[in-house]
Specification:
Elements lengths: L3 E4 L3 E4 L10 H23 L1 H6 L2 H10 L1 H9 L1 H12 L2 H6 L10 H25 L16 H15 L10 H14 L12 H16 L12 H10 L7 H24 L9 H26 L1 H5 L10 H4 L4 H34 L1
Helix pairs in contact: 1-13, 1-16, 3-13, 4-12, 4-13, 5-7, 5-12, 7-10, 7-12, 8-9, 8-10, 10-11
């Protein structure tokens, strides 16, 4: 019987089988598993082209082999970290107020710090609401509020009080007070106070809220460079910018996971690969899966070593770097698939022969 067939690509491949050895369904199943494993590896290579361009598969493979337990623990936290990122991403205006750059929420440390800050801010908001009481709606008098506004508003209040007589009010001071008011309107162009000298008490209440907000500042939680007055007043004027109780509950339960993930990521990182972001965790998950598949592939190849080495050029699997070069995965998969077809054919022939023998004996 001439066992010769063309593999896709136009090459003739001859197969050499020991026909004295019985071939059965176990052989066919092993070849099926080899093909399935190669298909999974090909899929991962196709879905993550940049990963294998940036890092040699052997670097990823060695990293995973040396840190299997830590990586598994780290990946166990991946769901919690992703959930935190999704919650934070829903509140873009809030994260913009924190000056988080585009893509910043991919970083583990940023995710942790932002979450811890949001949970801390919950208590701050409650305290400011309690302090301000009925004066809270006055914050809407200004389109935006900033820490630097405190001195400017205080300066205006003091100047207006100096112009005001206890008995006569602003009598005879019309030009002076209008000049003062013009300066206020220039400084606070979008405020609701056209004649601010008539609202000194309201201005004092607003400044009092601003100052109390700054008293609550905690360097442990509040990021440097972020105006706390601007952030807190923005949230108090529009609570949709902040998180719901349900979201805060999720954030609180997930904060520990991202903290542990960050510690593990630093322990796993080395000079060749830094693990610091959610993208890095996803890459690590892919690397872990590729490592598992490559080990599985080699075990399967050993199982069918006699058949494969006598019929297939396994140089394409010399090491994991070679396997991932060019079309080696695809070509090896095609050769294995063709070899499997011959095995299936031989199994069918043997089955026919056995049935014929039984028929003759009967």
């Amino acid at each position: 019987m001439n066992l010769k067939k063309k593999i896709k690509g136009g090459r003739d491949v001859s197969f050499n089988f020991d026909y004295t050895k019985e071939l059965g369904e176990d052989n066919a199943e092993n070849f099926k598993e080899i093909i399935s494993t190669l298909e999974d590896m090909a899929r991962l290579a196709e879905e993550n082209p940049m990963l294998f361009k940036k890092k040699k598969p052997s670097v990823l493979y060695n990293l995973v082999q040396k840190n299997k337990q830590k990586i598994q623990k780290l990946l166990d936290h991946l769901a919690g970290v992703s959930e935190l990122t999704n919650v934070l991403a829903k509140h873009k205006v809030y994260t913009d107020l924190l000056s988080i750059e585009k893509g910043g929420l991919d970083n583990l440390e940023t995710i942790k710090v932002t979450t811890a800050h949001a949970l801390w801010l919950k208590d701050v908001l409650a305290k400011v609401k309690h302090f301000a009481k009925d004066s809270l709606p006055l914050l809407a008098s200004f389109d935006e509020s900033h820490s630097v506004d405190i001195d400017d508003i205080r300066e205006y209040i003091n100047a207006a009080k100096q112009l005001k007589n206890v008995l006569l009010g602003y009598l005879g001071k019309t030009k002076d007070i209008e000049k003062l008011n013009q300066g206020f309107r220039k400084r606070f162009a979008l405020s609701k106070f056209d004649e601010p000298h008539k609202h000194v008490k309201e201005l004092e209440a607003i400044v009092g809220i601003y100052e109390y907000i700054l008293e609550l500042r905690d360097e442990q939680y509040h990021p440097t460079g972020v105006d706390m007055v601007h952030l807190v007043t923005a949230v108090l004027k529009d609570d949709s910018l902040y998180f719901t109780d349900e979201e805060l509950s999720k954030m609180e339960s997930s904060l520990d996971q991202v903290s542990k993930a960050e510690v593990l990521a630093k322990e796993i990182s080395n000079s060749k690969l830094t693990v610091a972001s959610l993208g890095d965790l996803n890459d690590l998950a892919v690397a872990s899966e590729v490592t598992s598949l490559y080990d599985e592939l080699n075990e399967l190849l050993k199982t069918e070593k006699e058949l494969i080495e006598s019929n297939i050029d396994v140089k394409k699997n010399k090491n994991i770097d070679v396997l991932f070069q060019g079309n080696n995965i695809s070509e090896l998969m095609q050769e294995i698939a063709t070899c499997k077809e011959y095995i299936n054919t031989l199994i069918e022939i043997n089955d026919v022969r056995k049935r014929a023998d039984r028929y003759i004996r009967s």
